[in-house]
């Protein structure tokens, strides 16, 4: 808990990461707009889910690198490791920190993206949408935190993270994009959406368990 | 030393099975009566290779757990050897799959669950090798590689399930929960090919382990003579 507080306070004081992340998200939207508007007045509803999740995953990559680079540069991590806490506690605190960070980005990105791109009101389906969002976020953050811990201890650090993170996160991307597109384009039909939500839930459980088992090793001596 | 002796014998056995499987596939098993026709013959190689690739990654997964428990570097070496061979077999899966795809569907590549899964598997385990290459310290490299091998292997079925959410695929489902869907003579040919391919994997693993051993000994000898 204290670790989470420390990260949040640090971020609130400097605000460097959050502001650049929000700018990143807005710029991504503009770039997607130019990249996908193939003809005047094209309906981008079916692409919005994909755009959102691509943006979130890349924003997360940047965020993950930052969140551990600070620890490493100032040798804070060594201090953390000396604390008489379970290593897994560090994992959960870091994951929670990254989750909050991602949620803030989404709080900005989702309204803006959907305002510009989605031509159908999805307000009635807000609850299932939030469920999908949260489940996918947990998966992304848990896996991302574990892999960032590994990559920051290697020679090539932030170059390595995308290479190991992106192939592993593809299942989440597929399920989350599918679910989001369903909600934006057709409304929350039960069958297709439920399967994806259950899948995301299963992914979260499995990878949190896997991280729980391996984090001791990942963070090193 | 025992390993060096036994590997050739295994290669011979694997070779016999594979050739027998090939002969059976072409001479004994009937030509597929459904849509596939003659191109179905590649199945006797394609599917065993796919199975063998997954077995290799499975062994790497077990070796990774064993390494984390014992911190014994021999498990790390087994993991590395298995991942390398699994990657080789995965590439062969994709190549044979593409050849078959061209013959059966008329396209070299379809974004279809199994092919896509194997593509991602390739990326995953290439990432494993990249990860190894950027950590210098031996124990640490072994530990990270083991953690990643565990996560990657868990991710493979996840990817496979997730790709099911994509629009319908073209891949034939030969072995499903309902049974194998193969005639007796096809099944025999298939199983012999599968046995041959698995033996080949075991033989290759043994040989690679022996090579790694020799590398270590060469390095040791170089150190002793002050090279």
Return residue spans of chain A where pLDDT drops below 50 for at least 5 consecutive residues. Answer: none
Give the tally of structural domains of chain A: 1
**Count the strands of chain B?**
0
What's the total helix number of chain A? 8
Oligomer: heterodimer
Helix-strand makeup class of chain A: mainly alpha
Distance between the termini of chain A: 22 Å
Q: What string, H for helix and E for strand, traces the elements of chain A in order?
A: HHHHHHHH
- Global shape of chain A: globular
Radius of gyration of chain A: 18 Å
- Which chains share the greatest interface? A-B, 32 and 28 residues
- The amount of beta strand of chain B, in percent, is under 5%
Number of helices of chain B: 6
Q: Assign the structural class of chain B, choosing from mainly alpha, mainly beta, alpha/beta, alpha+beta, or little secondary structure.
A: mainly alpha
Observed structural traits:
heterodimer; A: 221 residues; mainly alpha; globular; B: 227 residues
Task: Report on this structure.
The complex is a heterodimer of chains A (221) and B (227). Chain A is mainly alpha-helical and 221 residues long. Chain A is built from eight helices and no strands. Chain A is globular. Chain A starts with a helix and ends with a helix. In chain A, 44% of the residues are buried. The model of chain A has no long low-confidence stretch (mean pLDDT 82). With 227 residues, chain B is mainly alpha-helical. Chain B has one domain (13-166, 185-224). In chain B, helix 1 runs antiparallel to helix 6, helix 3 runs antiparallel to helix 6 (184-224) and helix 4 (113-133) runs antiparallel to helix 5. The interface between A and B is medium-sized, with 32 and 28 residues.
List the SSEs and their pairings.
The complex is a heterodimer of chains A (221) and B (227).
Chain A: H1 2-14, H2 16-36, H3 45-73, H4 76-82, H5 87-117, H6 126-152, H7 157-186, H8 190-219
Chain B: H1 2-28, H2 43-70, H3 73-105, H4 113-133, H5 138-163, H6 184-224
Helix pairs in contact in B: 1-6, 2-3, 2-5, 2-6, 3-4, 3-5, 3-6, 4-5
């Amino acid at each position: 808990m204290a670790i989470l507080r420390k990260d949040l306070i640090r971020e609130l004081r400097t605000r460097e990461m959050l502001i650049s992340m929000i700018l990143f998200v807005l710029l991504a939207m503009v770039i997607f707009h130019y990249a996908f508007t193939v003809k005047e007045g094209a309906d981008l509803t079916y692409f919005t889910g994909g755009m959102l999740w691509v943006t979130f995953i890349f924003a997360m990559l940047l965020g993950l690198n930052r969140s551990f680079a600070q620890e490493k540069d100032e040798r804070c991590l060594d201090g953390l490791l000396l604390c008489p806490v379970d290593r897994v506690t560090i994992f959960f605190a870091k994951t929670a920190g990254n989750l909050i960070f991602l949620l803030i980005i989404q709080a900005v990105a989702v309204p803006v993206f959907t305002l510009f791109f989605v031509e159908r009101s999805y307000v009635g389906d807000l609850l299932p949408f939030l469920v999908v969002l949260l489940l996918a976020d947990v998966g992304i953050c848990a896996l991302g935190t574990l892999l960032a811990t590994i990559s920051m201890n290697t020679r090539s650090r932030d170059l390595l993270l995308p290479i190991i993170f992106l192939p592993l996160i593809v299942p989440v991307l597929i399920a989350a994009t599918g679910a989001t597109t369903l909600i934006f384009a057709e409304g929350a039909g039960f069958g297709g959406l439920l399967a994806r939500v259950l899948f995301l839930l299963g992914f979260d459980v499995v990878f949190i368990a896997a991280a729980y088992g391996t984090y001791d090793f990942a963070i090193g001596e | 030393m025992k390993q060096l002796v036994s590997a050739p014998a295994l290669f011979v056995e694997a070779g016999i099975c594979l050739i027998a499987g090939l002969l059976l596939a072409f001479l004994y098993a009937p030509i597929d009566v459904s849509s596939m026709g003659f191109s179905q013959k590649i199945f006797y190689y394609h599917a065993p290779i796919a199975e063998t690739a997954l077995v290799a990654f499975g062994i790497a997964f077990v070796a990774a757990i064993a390494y984390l428990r014992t911190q014994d570097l021999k498990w790390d070496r087994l993991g590395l050897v298995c991942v390398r061979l699994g990657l080789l077999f995965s590439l062969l899966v994709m190549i044979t799959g593409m050849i078959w795809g061209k013959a059966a569907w008329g396209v070299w590549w379809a974004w279809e669950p199994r092919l896509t899964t194997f593509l991602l598997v390739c990326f995953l385990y290439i990432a494993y090798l990249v990860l190894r290459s950027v950590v210098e310290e031996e124990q640490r490299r072994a530990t990270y590689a083991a953690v990643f091998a565990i996560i990657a292997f868990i991710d493979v079925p996840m990817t496979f399930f997730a790709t099911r959410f994509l629009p319908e695929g073209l891949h034939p489902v030969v072995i499903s929960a309902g049974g194998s869907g193969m005639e007796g003579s096809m099944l025999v040919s298939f199983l012999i090919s599968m046995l041959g391919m698995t033996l080949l994997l075991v033989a290759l693993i043994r040989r690679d382990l022996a090579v790694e051993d020799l590398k270590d000994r060469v390095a040791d000898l170089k150190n002793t003579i002050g090279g």
